[in-house]
Amino acid sequence: MKRKYLVKKIIQSGVTIFFVLVFNYFLFRVMPGNPLAMIMRNPRASQEAIERTRELFGLNESWYVQFWIYVKQLTKADLGTSFLYRLPVTEVIMARILPTVIMVGLAQVVAMAVGILLGILSAWKRGSRIDVATLSFSLITYSMPTFWLGIILIAVFSVGLRWFPTSGMLTPGQTFASTLDMVKDAALHLVLPVLTLSLVLIGEYTLTMRNTLLDVLTEDYMTTAKAKGFDEKTVIRRHAVPNAMLPMITLIAINLGLVIGGTIQVETIFSWPGLGRLMFDALKARDYPLLQGIFLMITLSVILANLVADITYGYLDPRVKE
Amino acid sequence: MKKTVKIVVALLLAMLLMMGTTGLSGAQETPGVMRIGVTVEIDSLSPLISYSQAGYEVFALLYDSLVMLDDNLEPMPGLATEWTLSDDEQEWTFQLRDDVTWHDGEPFTSADVKFTYELLLENELGMYSGYLGGITSVETPDDYTVIIGTEGPKANMLLNSCPILPEHIWAEIPEAYDTWPNNEPIGTGPYAFAEFRPGEYLKMTANESTFHGRPGIDELIFVLYANTDTMAQSMRLGEIDAATNFSPSQLASLNDESHIEAISAVSLGFTELSFNSWDDASSTSHPLLADFAVRHALEYSLDKQQILDLVYSGQGTVGTSLVPPEGFYHYEPPADILRSYDPDKGNQVLEEAGYVDADGDGVRQAADGTPLEFTLTLRADNADEVQAGQMIAGMAAEVGIKINTETVDDGALIDKIYAGDFDMFIWGWGADLDPTTILNVMTTSQIGNMSDSNYSNETFDRMFMEQQTLMDPEERREMVWEMQQILYEEAPYIILFYDNSLQAVNTDRWTGWKRIPEEGGYFFNLTNYNYLNVTPVGTDSGDATPETAATSGTSVMPFVIIGAVVLIGGVFLLMRKKK
């Protein structure tokens, strides 16, 4: 792996991040509305309180002064203070990162695993009933509204069968006798959100895998492999799938990068304390520092994921030179 | 590849086995724990930073104020046992309790009161500093007496719910008051802070030595729900013991459950139609809208009850004047000026004012030909308001007024309001027991701040300052009535309805619930009554059983099934991998 290639990629990523930062900063402030709106609509807030808060948020300064302060803070790895929570942005985001990554990450991994397997199965048995069944399943789940699916699952599994709790990450206020108890409680709470999200995501992977694999199956080297005398399973497993995985890696990388952005629908139904809901709340309140912080996280995550994908590509596919 | 699959399957089976053997404990049966579902969580644990209704409710549990409200909404002793007013009505003497301790064990003294009031008067932060307006001095002749001097008579002194903060903590904080988060609040209140997980829940435990008498609730937890459907399901399952602010469509189905009592409570909030009343040159409001006859006619054309029934499932009361009926100061317009649903009268008013439909297109015009055509801006965030607005547009056509609706997001609307760039919009307010809070919104000094109609009337402003000094409630009410009369005549707002608050409680597990006032709610009712008096059903105090291992709501079944699926899947995979 040539060093030059790696360094070039990293510099490219750095430049992208910088542009995204600048763009995000102005993007949010162009929106109509005022971060002080919530205070202003509370009749108990006094005029002085509103003025003091306006000063505190730095909204009195001109736009380039505010931007300069923002850049200076960034160089010190300080994401500023959230308007909504009056806590450091890093603190607010950190509190929600783990729940988001666990739930969305797990759902993505499950969707990937199941989706890829189903895609392989589908392409291999193309035209058969299995293929039709798998395709239908994927398309149906893919087009299901996430919200509706979540509510149905709650109605069936929570209210109807009483197997799982309806919402939240843990039973509220519960003190646990041991870590194992807490893990069990968390696991129970995790099932429905992960199930909902992965069902909706499977379709993407199944269809993509199926398509790429079908393409690969028509290649000349597949005929060679068969001619060599390998049985079907080995042909698929050793020759077809590795080649078909190349485009899948890009898809997987991007989706894993986006995991940190949370998923607002599932988080809303299950009252899951994730970054998706946080983003939405921050947006409604025009909490610029928090929005900028979250977008920065997502940008970094996606760019990092892409970087890793690029490098992995370099290893996996000998045809890719720098 | 085969090896990894085997390992994964083995791990999963081991996990399941562990879970199966150790059993699953349900958590919901612990008797003294009350979980209340809420849709908006507290924004900050610091009374100097928080502006939410959730904050208002929670601070009344963590902290105490000098005076509180009893179940008749009358002032009763809080941290102050008795109070006297000097003859010139400018000096209040409060006697404080001498046996109160902070949650951390330190004794409460008058120094804490002096510190808190002076802190708020100087910094003017938070929702409570406004209540202290007019206070000029706070003296503490001894540890349990406070003498408060005011500029003039202060009518709302006893309605001041300002929480008293501990001096020994707040005087020593490392940061500025407007950024210090107060992450572990220490108060004197009936509940002590236990844990706050933002986005999930806020937990408090009973204060054993509170002067209110130890509450029947051991642990009080506010659980945040992002979705009211899930909250209603949770309520049904018993995962929570109470729910607030769910939607009208869930009211009936919750009431069907025998263990749930769901109510539609009157609240101090209202929804209004606001007109751009700005007489500044930069206001873009339609000039004909400034004619009161047009506003009156519009109100005559509105069948508010029908809007309530269709959009809000009947949960609310038709609106008249600014101060909601739950307050002592509400003004009920007499029959001869009350504008109830009467489209014929509306037409008459417009005819007499000189607006006729000259060209027969159904829309009236002024003498110079300008049609009565206005834009109604609606908030995209609130689907009910949007529907109501569309109904209003339809009803206005009955009297020859054409209304075009546009829907924007909150932020865009706020920008329009401050630029004076609108005709009318729909929004709402929550009022206080003290009318000063809501009357303030209509004063000239609030233009550019809180005023969203940009209304200005000198007589109103003068009366506003005066009513704050009238100590005799009857005298004060006379003045506040006059103020509302002015508002009703000039109509910067058409009050559409007084909102109801939807709440539900579990009556199988808890008893002693009381609605305050009679038609009011169990929570967010300006008192602590239910938090202090509700007790678990069937347990005598001191008999509370420690957590039972009962498995309510969970069972081993799901894991057995998941285990079976994984097992079969694992075996299937293993077999396929073999040649």
Task: Provide structural commentary.
Chain A has 322 residues and is mainly alpha-helical. Helix content of chain A is 75%, strand content 0%. In chain A, helix 5 (89-124) runs antiparallel to helix 10 (232-258), helix 5 (89-124) packs parallel to helix 13 and helix 9 packs antiparallel against helix 10 (232-258). The N and C termini of chain A lie close together (9 Å). The model of chain A has no long low-confidence stretch (mean pLDDT 87). Chain B is of the alpha+beta class and 579 residues long. Helix content of chain B is 31%, strand content 20%. Chain B has 16 helices and 19 strands. In chain B, helix 1 (2-22) packs antiparallel against helix 16 and helix 7 (292-301) runs antiparallel to helix 9. The longest helix of chain B has 21 residues, at 2-22. Chain B starts with a helix and ends with a helix. In chain B, 45% of the residues are buried. Residues 20-28 and 540-554 of chain B have low confidence and may be disordered. The chains are: A mainly alpha (322), B alpha+beta (579). Chains A and B meet through helix 2, helix 3, helix 5, helix 7 and helix 8 of A and helix 1, strand 8, strand 10, helix 5 and helix 11 of B.
Structural class of chain A: mainly alpha
Mean pLDDT across all residues of chain A, rounded? Answer: 87
Largest sheet report of chain A: none
Report the order of strands and helices of chain A: HHHHHHHHHHHHH
Low-confidence segments of chain A, given as residue ranges, are none
Q: What overall geometry of chain A do the principal axes of the alpha carbons give?
A: globular
